Amino acid sequence: MTRFKKALLAALALTLCMATLTGCAVGKFDVNKKIVCEVDGEPVTYDEYKYFFYRHHTDLYGSAEVALNDEMFNKVKAMTEDSLRRKATIMRLIDEYGIKLDDEQKDYVDEMVEAQIELYEGEQGYKDFLLEGRATGTVFRDQILLTFGYDPALREIFKMGANKDIVMTDEAILASVQSGQFYRYQYAYFALTEGKNSVELEKEAKEFLAGVKNGANTFKNEDYDIIGQRTLGFEQAILALDEGEVSEVLWGADWGDNAGYYVFKRLPIDVEHAKTNMERFEIEDEYFASTYLKYISEQSNSIEIEYAKYFDSIDYATLLKKEELK
């Protein structure tokens, strides 16, 4: 083959790749592209449905080995539908507000996929990693684009006032503080780091707590006002307290970067305190995040889901089973 013909074929292949964006996208692969349902008129493949279904199942029941009875299945199915509706809502609003991602934002998807391929030492390790989480390369890329592209873009224009249903005035934010949407607390954290003994660390935390109760110790960290962007367990531990109450020593393995012990004290809400500390506590950001998520959830209630006949042929167990690429 002549050098000219080789160059022509290479150029043609590149043109087709750029035009179709199928098969040429970094890390993209599929297992089953059959349509399971339509959400807001848009088709959802088996691969995508399985990803959301498995994620919610493991959140609820931990292991894929847990057999589903009808009640359990319907609960996971309902959560899956909620996720699909919320995604469809975001994409509908993206179209409504004419949001377009630039080339740099789109290239970010390739960069993240390439980073994962490198992390898992090649394409095979990358694919095994995704399949273990019941995802595919196509689903993974789509989630990156949504999570790091479209959703932040929509949040940004809403925060600037494009959506009149989300009010971002100081008055609205402070009203949410007064309404109980925020809570205020102090805490002491005893990190289980390398070289630390958990028994001794727990003893240290209990001694601190005893000192708090008899007045010998005080919480040295600043207090915080937040809506609930903390880990669920962290938040529940605080909300279980009455204002002014101090918790027992609590083990929080998943509440931060390090495992460790916590002692919390819940404080009363002080509007003037919140007003003068809006920026320090990022109260505006917390208020917006909560308001935005509530808005998306409310809008998603009107999204219709229509299941295809193919869904009836799917065994529940197949939605949990790890796929193998042929």
* Regions with little confidence, pLDDT below 50 for 5+ residues: 1-23
Strand content range = 5-15%
Major beta sheet summary: 4 strands, antiparallel
- Structural class by helix and strand composition: alpha+beta
Strand order of the largest sheet: 4-3-6-5
Please provide the count of β strands: 7
Choose one word for the global shape: globular
Rg, rounded, reads 25 Å
How far apart are the termini? 33 Å
Count of alpha/pi helices? 12
Overall average residue pLDDT: 87
**Helix content, binned percent:** 40-55%
Order of helices and strands: HEEHHHHHHEHEHEEHHEH
Please sum up the structure shown.
The chain contains twelve helices and seven strands. The protein is of the alpha+beta class and 326 residues long.
Polypeptide structure, described:
This protein is α+β, with helices and mostly antiparallel strands. Helices cover 53% and strands 10% of the residues. The chain is built from 12 helices and 7 strands. The chain has a 4-stranded antiparallel β-sheet. A 3-stranded antiparallel β-sheet has the order 2-1-7. The longest helix is centred in the first third of the chain and has 27 residues, at 70-96. The two termini are 33 Å apart. Mean pLDDT is 87; it is low at 1-23.
